[in-house]
Amino acid sequence: MYDKNSKIGFIGLGTMGYPMAGHLAQQGYQVSVYNRTPAKATQWQAQYSGTSAKTPAELAQGMDIVFSCVGNDNDLRAVTIGEQGAFHTLAPHAVFIDHSTTSADIARELFSIAQAKGFHFLDAPVSGGQSGAEKGILTVMVGGEAEIFAQVQPVISAYAKAVTLMGNAGMGQLTKMVNQICIAGLLQGLSEAVHFGEQAGLDMKLVLDVISKGAAQSWQMENRGKTMVDKAFNFGFAVDWMRKDLGLCLTEARQNGATLPITALVDQFYADVQDKGGNRWDTSSLITRLTRKI
Amino acid sequence: MYDKNSKIGFIGLGTMGYPMAGHLAQQGYQVSVYNRTPAKATQWQAQYSGTSAKTPAELAQGMDIVFSCVGNDNDLRAVTIGEQGAFHTLAPHAVFIDHSTTSADIARELFSIAQAKGFHFLDAPVSGGQSGAEKGILTVMVGGEAEIFAQVQPVISAYAKAVTLMGNAGMGQLTKMVNQICIAGLLQGLSEAVHFGEQAGLDMKLVLDVISKGAAQSWQMENRGKTMVDKAFNFGFAVDWMRKDLGLCLTEARQNGATLPITALVDQFYADVQDKGGNRWDTSSLITRLTRKI
Amino acid sequence: MYDKNSKIGFIGLGTMGYPMAGHLAQQGYQVSVYNRTPAKATQWQAQYSGTSAKTPAELAQGMDIVFSCVGNDNDLRAVTIGEQGAFHTLAPHAVFIDHSTTSADIARELFSIAQAKGFHFLDAPVSGGQSGAEKGILTVMVGGEAEIFAQVQPVISAYAKAVTLMGNAGMGQLTKMVNQICIAGLLQGLSEAVHFGEQAGLDMKLVLDVISKGAAQSWQMENRGKTMVDKAFNFGFAVDWMRKDLGLCLTEARQNGATLPITALVDQFYADVQDKGGNRWDTSSLITRLTRKI
Amino acid sequence: MYDKNSKIGFIGLGTMGYPMAGHLAQQGYQVSVYNRTPAKATQWQAQYSGTSAKTPAELAQGMDIVFSCVGNDNDLRAVTIGEQGAFHTLAPHAVFIDHSTTSADIARELFSIAQAKGFHFLDAPVSGGQSGAEKGILTVMVGGEAEIFAQVQPVISAYAKAVTLMGNAGMGQLTKMVNQICIAGLLQGLSEAVHFGEQAGLDMKLVLDVISKGAAQSWQMENRGKTMVDKAFNFGFAVDWMRKDLGLCLTEARQNGATLPITALVDQFYADVQDKGGNRWDTSSLITRLTRKI
Ligand SMILES: NC(=O)C1=CN([C@@H]2O[C@H](COP(=O)(O)OP(=O)(O)OC[C@H]3O[C@@H](n4cnc5c(N)ncnc54)[C@H](OP(=O)(O)O)[C@@H]3O)[C@@H](O)[C@H]2O)C=CC1
Ligand SMILES: NC(=O)C1=CN([C@@H]2O[C@H](COP(=O)(O)OP(=O)(O)OC[C@H]3O[C@@H](n4cnc5c(N)ncnc54)[C@H](OP(=O)(O)O)[C@@H]3O)[C@@H](O)[C@H]2O)C=CC1
Ligand SMILES: NC(=O)C1=CN([C@@H]2O[C@H](COP(=O)(O)OP(=O)(O)OC[C@H]3O[C@@H](n4cnc5c(N)ncnc54)[C@H](OP(=O)(O)O)[C@@H]3O)[C@@H](O)[C@H]2O)C=CC1
After folding, report:
1. Residues of B with catalytic annotation?
2. Is residue B222 in some structural domain?
3. Could you tell me whether strands C120-123 and B30-34 are parallel, antiparallel, or unpaired per DSSP bridges?
4. Chain A contacts of C275, Cβ < 8 Å?
5. Which structural domain range is residue C266 located in?
6. How far is CA B25 from CA A7, B7, D234, in A?
7. Is D4 buried (19+), middle (13-18) or exposed (0-12) by CB count in 10 A?
8. Does residue B258 sit in the same domain as residue B128?
9. The last residue of a domain, from among D142, D168, D194
10. A185·B182 Cβ contact <8 A
11. Is A176 among the catalytic positions?
């Protein structure tokens, strides 16, 4: 349905959005961008061909699809229904696709507003991190209407290896929450294991090699185990983002009746990491609160 | 060094030991077995060729290698230095290899006693579970003397895909503890994630398919995620064994100064599962204490 | 400064507000009341002498002091700055005193709005529960201006045994949060202790008598210990209120950098109690999730 | 039954035992003491009138009652059934009363051995700390035979304000465990509360004064709250003793099926305090792991 003449807007050229918008341009779509800090938009235009707009509202005019990848609920609110938000100018039948990790509540709220205004909204949080965005191999979890999903899936595939419809509005965000809950408990377990092994005098890199072949294996063990042993954390998914995400999970759980003891605890443990100055460290830095002497 | 004429004894024909001893027999070694409950030894002899003994002490006489795979520290103590234990009759230069999961303390203690008596002891706990034992693809983590390890490694390979020397006496057990600590936190995270997803009304099998491609992935997610959704637990690694193992970890941590908050908590959560009658359920049954209504 | 001719309004005649407003009337103040559900206002007027109003805005006109004791942040917002809120009609120099337990954020926000409009706001959450309100012996923790506090303290004393200025706007609420954090950890400890004692076959009422003389003593032990043994929970401070309060604490901690591991965990444990139908049970019902067989 | 001519032995003149034995001497009993490090026995004899013995076995000969107040299970084992232990020489009908905090298992074991040998054993752990011992106002929780208890209660009262029979052998120790479980959760709650209040900029001594009148009140708040604010911990009940005691609780819970999540977690948190060098600090030092910057 969409082709190279389709007009695409992209709001938010951060760590994730910048390369995602770039992949769309490289696929040949007509891409226009908006970034709060204009310098990044200028830089993006220099690197890829495309236009830029001064506000989300200006950007959204006449677009077929508008993407966003901003910070939190408030940020998303600002660029959609805020004073200069895209929702004021989006054409009927246009599709707004949000790639930010937000609450399911705001996703459902924006879906309803979009519906009332005659256009479409999909919540579409991603996983895969900076390198996934750069390589164009993100995993995208989508909530919204099946028909709309089917139309935009090929476009999203410009930067994704998997794009899946998870259910109604908000269910993309809920899927992402499931993902983050898994990671919180898993990383604390891994942190305690590495810490224990170090206290026990084991050669932990050898240990990780051996046990990553069995029931203790995880992506985190394979991709973060050795950097945890090296106490190297200046990369990856930042602790501050993780706390935001866990906050979303805990708030949602308060509503849906789920009980998340370890998630709640690990969220507090991340407060310890922040207290140590680890706001921008990778989430695997959870181990630093155990090995205080270092 | 060892060949088909080598004489091998095996103590403990339980879920794990039975097939392990079977693989040794199938490789052509001269295998003699001992089991506390004699019926299992008789059954084993019927299935594989080999002899049996009435006590560990009787079994150990004249052996080149004696293996054990029994329950806990007390059980290992009984079959080694107990009244009818193998240590009373083992020949000088023989090797005793223990595959039980025990404390590092008893491993170090038996190593010292063996040394004083002129024979050898290796602690060699395994991972891979019942199916790993049956298929002969266990992972074996060994503590003890390098020279002895090098000699017996080919024999152990009869039922293992990886046999690694982790360090001195006790370090096999310590490695296994690291493995179990990883699993405890990881499974609680996974349990909370599945529980949350269910409360949120997500199609959890679809969710697991999607997120198992990224940073939340784990062996447990791939191999236990869907059975957790189905609430099927009559298989796998029993909760009672897990509590024994976590007890070993927590006792060791008390000595080496490691702090294991989530491990300690999950150990208590397993008490809830036992309280529900889950003593023999797979460790993934941790989720049952969250979904109490089911 | 205030005397029997002072005009006092009271918003929210719930479990707490009803008797509090009653004490003010009994002290001889001219009390007018507002309650969302009018029947309670009618009942209150029948029991005490006084008038009533149809909206907070109507009530507030010409008042010297207006009190509120409603539910959460949203409720307080509704009765103050909401469409029919009291802030639209309050006279200059009047004082608005809120007895609800809310966030410190909304207390600070309402303080600023009041200041801009020329009247005064005090956040004044209470402890002491229903019986404290009925007996007029509450503890009141106040945040706001010292001068204003000094003027209204004698009035508040109508239903309080202690009224203390804790600091600037919001600090009343923060003090109440400290109170709730203490209680959460304390009650979980007490729950585990009673549960353990029961599993151990002890006569727990005797045990509580003995240990309440020493370092384990607490108000909760003395006032809730035996009802916990009896599993009687249809009274006291409701689990739903407690979760609201712990939610406030955890949100505030996210801002001020405090790390509250046990508070976060106990908050999740209360989700288990809610899941058992304990929404209105006393907070000491935390023990019910340990003794699942009962 | 016992009078000033009764012969009393006391094993273990540590922080607790020294003043306890002193009170017995001051009451006029014929007291003989044993201490592993003889200097303390000499010092004790210089301060109080009495004799001393070179071994527990020597001490116990001809005694009517022998008390002990040593460290842990192993220490108690040493002074009773160890090579030079008191159990080898105790006369029939004599009573051995242990004031150490130990497992219930060893209490039951020694009770049985005593019974077989024709004398009596009571487990009688205490609470009240060093100052309680010095002032003679301990609380004593006793397990054993009612008849024997009745006879010795007046003697124990020399240093106790309350001496209560809790039930059969071991139930004194189990009662003490209930006490310690209460304290663990309570102190962590109090620590988080003080920490939160400090982060919030409250005057915490004022806050403690205010809230100690209500539902958050506890002995620890009244007796340790302000020293926690001052970060003063060089007194009181040592962290190392607490970890020993919590270890006993957790081991017992493993047997009786109780689930103790917060107790297990706080036990791990105490590992953090030990890691900071707090082995001899008062248990209220739990707060130091939250305020890491200090
Ligand atoms: N099951 C699993 O998936 C895994 C288990 N392990 C570890 O392997 C060990 C064995 O497990 P598993 O085979 O499942 O256990 P089982 O309970 O199936 O078998 C235990 C074996 O040990 C024998 N045994 C136990 N106690 C004594 C004793 N005091 N004296 C003599 N023999 C004794 C039993 O004899 P009898 O037949 O008479 O009862 C039986 O042969 C454990 O340490 C476990 O933690 C490690 C990895 C995976
Ligand atoms: N109960 C207790 O033991 C204690 C309670 N508190 C705190 O005191 C406050 C009140 O508690 P409690 O009296 O028990 O609560 P209740 O539920 O018994 O009463 C709440 C009162 O607030 C009114 N109200 C709620 N929302 C609104 C709204 N949006 N607009 C107008 N009126 C509203 C209710 O009106 P309506 O009758 O129409 O529902 C009712 O009068 C809470 O913040 C609570 O946390 C503090 C200490 C102890
Ligand atoms: N301190 C407190 O506030 C409280 C302590 N308790 C409990 O009371 C008991 C004693 O505590 P406390 O007095 O503080 O401890 P201390 O360490 O001050 O004293 C321990 C005493 O036991 C003796 N002892 C230890 N091990 C042995 C052994 N193997 N053989 C012979 N004697 C031994 C020591 O002898 P030596 O002088 O030679 O070292 C010393 O006399 C402990 O179980 C503790 O948990 C209970 C309540 C409060």
Report:
1. 176
2. yes
3. unpaired
4. 257, 259
5. 174-289
6. 71, 11, 64
7. exposed
8. no
9. D168
10. no
11. yes
Residue nearest to atom 14 of ligand 1 (CA): B15
Q: Do B210 and A166 lie within an 8 Å CB cutoff?
A: yes
* Catalytic machinery residues of C: 176
Annotated catalytic residue within D117, D135, D176, D205: D176
CA B79 to centroid of chain Cα atoms? 17
Q: How far is the CA of C16 from the centre of ligand 2 (A)?
A: 7
**Per-residue model confidence (pLDDT) at position B294:** 40
Q: Grade residue A232 by pLDDT with cuts at 50, 70 and 90.
A: very high
Same domain? For B152 and B213 the reply is: no
Reading the block at residue C246, the tokens are 């712990």
ipTM above 0.85, yes or no: yes
Say whether both C100 and C186 belong to one domain.
no
Which of A241, A244, A260, A268 to substitute to test the interface with C, most C CBs within 10 Å? Answer: A268
Q: Does the beta carbon of C274 lie inside 6 Å of ligand 2?
A: no
Nearest CA to ligand 2 atom 32: C36
Predicted confidence (pLDDT) per residue in A266-287, tens digit = 999 999 999 999 999 999 999 9
Tens of pLDDT, residue by residue over B106-155, are 999 999 999 999 999 999 999 999 999 999 999 999 999 999 999 999 99
- Across the interface, of A128, A164, A181, the residue whose CB is closest to B192 is A181
Nearest to C249 by CA among C191, C185, C187, C190: C185
Is B15 close to ligand 1, i.e. is its CB under 6 Å away? yes
**Residue C2 covered by a domain:** no
Same domain, yes or no, for C121 and C190?
Answer: no
Say whether pLDDT at A239 is over 80: yes
Last residue of a domain, one of D168, D194, D216: D168
Total of domains in chain A: 2
Q: Which residue's alpha carbon is at the smallest distance from atom 9 of ligand 3?
A: D100
